[in-house]
Specification:
146 residues; alpha/beta; Rossmann fold; 5 helices; 7 strands; 43% helix
Length: 146
């Protein structure tokens, strides 16, 4: 398989988008192909096609009413429904009052063989500490891709 990553994301106030873009930049600098899908503007069929040969999936979705943004949840369910050969996942999320997106994604991935490499869950806009965690996740992804 190619050294590539599928990033499926949705952002509401920009925080999740900032995390996703920081991860993309870090991966591209390391020679990884990153296929980005803004779930509000992408055809879900294109996302499904890309899932077939992407060993790593990055889900970016903020918390909405104690769960994942509905569009992000739809993409996560697609992974389970298609039984994609994806081996690893990363979650990037943000919230205003309380989280919940991470818990919901974990429940969606139950019963799959996908290893979650890490999560960055930020309250409000990301700060330096969260960006450092994103860079650590980029390193883990590169390591898994070989």
């Amino acid at each position: 398989m190619e050294r590539k990553v599928l990033v499926a994301y949705v952002t509401m106030w920009g925080s999740t988008g900032k995390l996703v873009n920081a991860l993309k930049e870090a991966l591209v600098k390391k020679g990884v192909i990153v296929n980005m899908f803004d779930l509000t503007a992408s055809d879900i069929g294109d996302v499904a096609k890309e899932l077939v040969d992407s060993p790593v999936l990055v889900v970016g979705a903020p918390t909405v009413l104690s769960g994942m943004h509905p569009v992000g949840a739809y993409a996560a369910l697609l992974v389970k429904t298609l039984r994609a050969p994806t081996k690893h996942a990363v979650m990037l999320t943000s919230h205003g009052w309380s989280g919940g997106a991470v818990r919901q994604l974990q429940s969606f991935l139950e019963g799959t063989k996908i290893e979650v490499l890490g999560v960055v869950d930020v309250k409000g806009p990301p700060k330096e500490a969260e960006y450092a965690k994103v860079l650590e996740l980029a390193e883990k992804i590169v390591e898994k891709l070989g």
